[in-house]
Design goal:
The protein has 838 residues and is an alpha+beta fold. Among the domains are: 152 residues, no CATH class; 162 residues, Alpha-Beta Complex (Isoleucyl-tRNA Synthetase, domain 2), CATH 3.90.740; 152 residues, Isoleucyl-tRNA Synthetase, Domain 1; 63 residues, Roll (Ubiquitin-like (UB roll)), CATH 3.10.20. Strands 10, 11, 12, 13, 14, 15 and 16 form a seven-stranded mixed beta sheet that branches. Strands 2-1-24-25 form a four-stranded parallel beta sheet, covered by helices on one side. Strands 6-5-9-17 form a four-stranded antiparallel beta sheet. Helix 1 packs across helix 24 and helix 19 packs across helix 20. Bound molecules: ligand ANZ and zinc ion. Zinc ion (ZN) binds next to loops. The site of ligand ANZ has 18 residues, from strand 11 and strand 15. This is Leucine--tRNA ligase. InterPro entries: aa-tRNA-synth_I_CS, aa-tRNA-synth_Ia, Leu-tRNA-ligase, Leu_tRNA-synth_edit, M/V/L/I-tRNA-synth_anticd-bd, Rossmann-like_a/b/a_fold, tRNAsynth_Ia_anticodon-bd, Val/Leu/Ile-tRNA-synth_edit. Keywords: Aminoacyl-tRNA synthetase, ATP-binding, Cytoplasm, Ligase, Nucleotide-binding, Protein biosynthesis. One of its GO terms (biological process) is leucyl-tRNA aminoacylation.
Length: 838
Amino acid sequence: MDAAHPPHPAAHPLPTREIEDRWQRYWAEHGTFRARDDGARPRRYLLTMFPYPSGDLHMGHAEVFALEDVVARYWRLRGYDVLNPIGWDSFGLPAENAAIRRGENPAVFTETNIATQAATAHRYGVSFDWSRRLETHRPEYYRWTQWLFLRLLERGLAYRATAPVNWCPADQTVLANEQVVGGRCERCGAAVVQRELTQWFVRVTAYADRLLDDMDALEGAWPARVLTMQRNWIGRSTGARVRFAVVPDGGPRATASASPGAGSRPDHVEVFTTRPDTLPGATFVAVAPDGSLAAALCAPEHAEALARHREAALASGEIERTNAQRPSTGTFLGTWVRHPVTGERLPVWAADHVLPGYGTGAVMGVPAHDDRDARFAAAYGLPVGSGETWPGVEDAITRLEADGAGERATSYRLRDWLVSRQRYWGAPVPVVHCPGCGVVPVPDDELPVRLPDLAGDDLLPRGRSPLASPAADAWRRVPCPRCGAAAERDPDTLDTFVDSSWYFLRYCSLGDGTPDDVPFRPEDARRWMPAAQYVGGVEHAILHLLYSRFVTKFLHDEGWVDVVEPFATLLNQGQVRSGGRAMSKSLGNGVDLGEQLDRHGADAVRLAMVYAGPPEDDVDWADVDAGAVRRFCARVLRLADGVGPVPGPGESGPGARDAVVPGSRAHALRRATHRTVHEAQDLLDRSRFNVVVARVMELVTAARRASEDGPAAGEDAGAHAAAVREAVEAVVVLLSLFAPHTAEEAWHRLGREASVADASWPVVDPGLLAADEVEAAVQVDGKVRARVRVPADVDERALEDLALATTGVARATAGREVVRVVVRAPHVVNVVTRAAAS
Ligand code: ANZ
Ligand code: ZN
């Protein structure tokens, strides 16, 4: 080492890997972060959206974990018994696709990545209770995912149906609507096509009203935009169904055989409308070209046109079809209906803005009141009709019901949850198809239905599940559990949203004595649920939360849980970006957390993440200066080293107020300390974590200055030292939420025992919170006319009001006009006047 540049003093090293290792070992050895669950403290359950193991943890995880750990550590210090578990959402496509490329089983990739992520999470120093870890791909977990499916099946809430589904030709599997972005597969970008397939669905629509209504209790506790997204997704509309009788001689019909469905032409068309009051203005009826109604109503000579229209409609996604700006296309079906009020004949059209799965799949066209209908009428030469309406929707419904022409009705945007996937790496659907008995559930005591060991090319998607291929014959062929005849297992696997719809319940029962006869113990869930806070990305604002809410309600109905809502509050963190763009592996600007830990250390990354801005805001990692926060951590360690010894039992501690003279340096520092702690509480309760960091930095500066300056002449040196220690201890306790290793080390150097994680939150002395008073000068046209005493943090408005109320101002402005009041809080108010206009 160069003599001209002395090494960093050994007593003041930067927070190092060695420090981090030491404290991580300490926490592990002492079980510091295990939930006690012994009733000695009030319980709080903090839940983090569990990671998908696709490589190392990335900076998105770094952000969530840093944020959630602030909360976990804060609650612990406030005296709660905190449950803060961790697991992996470890089934899913990326592992399967990697396994095909590598010629291995997806478990290899999955478990390697879990090991990497777990090691990184440990190095990051998150206060997880590692004894409660779970992984959804393990048979001891997915056994219960299958159990859940069977309970739904038992209640008629899981069913099989043939439906048009989004099919990704590249991934060779169905996609949920929201996995289709701009007509393409969200994962691989391939253009999505529509296919008719028999699939498994879960009847979430049966819970639509409860899913909506129970959200009232989440108001203010969940981000408003998430509640709005959930509400829109469920999309409840109230209105009426109105029946239009089909005119029997509505047109010459060819032989029934020429047109499928024509033989069973319905005698009426039922529409769903939210505006039954506009019925007088209806001039046509439109049905979805791709629904069964269109086929049934279509006259044979229009069948060909309808078939073409149907193909086109299927090819354009739902989002596109419901875009109000896009012109709709129509096909006349050669059928007429009777207007229930006027008796007029109205034509029936297929129009692709009408969706088959919403309402009744049919609408009444009211061009006089609806823009879309107006454009459709203009495009196809249909009459605009009258603008007349009935007095109100309620009246209209009463009238319809009296006439027998319709009735009150509710429609939902929400569709049933498509849960089957034609891929391997998921929980097998636990049923057997028997030629005699049909669908037969696998008996509970035969669960789990384990995945057979397939690898590499055997996993290649070929338009059906790999479990349907010859490679899985031995696995698939089983006797029917009911009659013993030769039968076959269902070859599909469950959507990973099923795995994650209940994992938070299992956490409640993990640890010592994990049960193997139930998915979780109801009494454990009773103690911990609902999770007091759920932390995770807004990308899960709709589906994951909806399905978790649904499953909680279902298990409530089944007597397994008391609560009807799983997550009392929700915190959505912003995105981590890099150079202005979303960070992602596919864009090649993804950053692994492990690598950042090597470079900066855990505390610097954590602190930088939290300090970068409010949790909801996006963070641009390229703008974050981890080096600066690292130097800050070093400053705190130096500060701790400079603090005098721990006061002995008989000596006056920092709480001894008598020794601190108001106006002394010690007093000023004590006030800063107590106000910082007080403010931090409020900020933490409102998730303003970045502001807390800023306040801690300010307190560090104040403590350092006080420590360097020492007491003023004539001030009590003992009281001063005590105030410095109090400030530094408060700094360390607060810092332990953000940079726990540095805080532990500082706590240790302060001579405190054991772990700062076991310390308690500093008690605030209300006597030290009152603001200082200052004197403000009140001028009128530049001349001081009054003085008022105000709190140092007075706001401008209050100061202005006070100033204008003084007699000095009243006298000086008498007979003049006040044109302007300039306020410089807290010191000066200047009132500008001019001669009053007479
Ligand atoms: C006549 C009418 C007149 C309508 C008017 C609206 C305004 P929300 O609020 O989204 O529920 N509709 C009904 N079923 C449909 C389907 N399957 N596909 C597309 N559109 C459908 O919208 C309900 C309204 O959307 C219904 O009320 C219907 O048009 C249309 F001045 O009926 B309305
Ligand atoms: Zn059978």
